[in-house]
Design a protein that fits this description.
alpha/beta, five-stranded parallel beta sheet, 7 strands
Length: about 220
């Protein structure tokens, strides 16, 4: 069973997906995190994607789709998979449909986190990331227990290279042009759940959980 989180950078996809993972036993797969891991490890893939990621551009569809495919077939998918950051183009959504059909995976719902540009700018501006385990924080709304240190693994937190003002501008532009058309794509397929993501993390999570519980039931009934 598969879930998709759709929304602008900074809408809270990663944060909400982490919560769902804890409560429902789903496994969160973030293509951005898989790419950052490859960049940290200095693999061929890491070198190929470094420029795109740092500039705030999208990595080519076929490259990121094969990274996802590799991760999915490795197994370890719990009670379901949450895709955090994939698909980001209509082409990627089509590739995903092919993968679903090929492996008999079922898409249960697309959780669309809606937030204004002002809200996402503010969230991205204060974001801190753990370079070791990928956990996300915010200096004001979600600070770590010890300043500058990851709660999970103790590593020193950093500002992501694509959280600079210039890269943020680029990512929001790319989102509007290439990713937003997916709202209509999934709405037409009856898959879209619109969630107001402008509030506090707990408040947004209540709406996410409610949508997931409802859709999950439907998904189980369909088998
Ligand atoms: P994220 O952590 O989801 O914000 O992703 C960080 C960056 O990784 C993006 O700005 C892109 O450069 C790249 N990336 C992640 N997922 C995708 C995707 N599905 N398609 C293309 N590029 C991606």
């Amino acid at each position: 069973m598969m879930w998709i989180f759709l929304g602008a950078p900074g809408a809270g996809k990663g944060t909400q997906a982490e919560r769902l993972q804890q409560d429902f036993g789903f496994v969160q797969i973030s293509t951005g995190e898989l790419l950052r891991e490859a960049m940290r490890a200095g693999t061929e893939l890491g070198k190929t994607v470094q420029g795109y990621v740092t500039r705030g551009d999208l990595v080519p569809d076929e490259v990121v789709a094969s990274v996802l495919q590799e991760r999915l077939v490795r197994g370890d998918t719990g009670t379901g998979v949450i895709l955090d950051g994939f698909p980001r183009t209509v082409r990627q959504a089509e590739i995903l449909e092919e993968m679903l059909a090929e492996h008999c995976w079922q898409l249960c719902g697309v959780l669309y986190l809606e937030a204004s540009e002002e809200v996402v700018q503010q969230r991205l501006g204060g974001r801190r990331n753990c370079p070791q385990c990928g956990a996300n924080y915010h200096v004001v709304t979600m600070p770590p227990k010890v300043e500058g240190r990851c709660d999970r693994c103790g590593a020193q937190l950093v500002v992501r290279p694509d959280d600079t003002p210039e890269a943020i501008r680029k990512r929001l532009e790319v989102y509007r042009e290439q990713t937003e058309p997916l709202v209509a794509f999934y709405d037409q397929r009856g898959m879209l759940e619109r969630i107001d993501a402008s509030g506090e993390v707990d408040e947004v999570y209540r709406a996410v959980k409610e949508a997931v519980s409802r859709r999950w039931q439907r998904c189980l009934e369909k088998g």
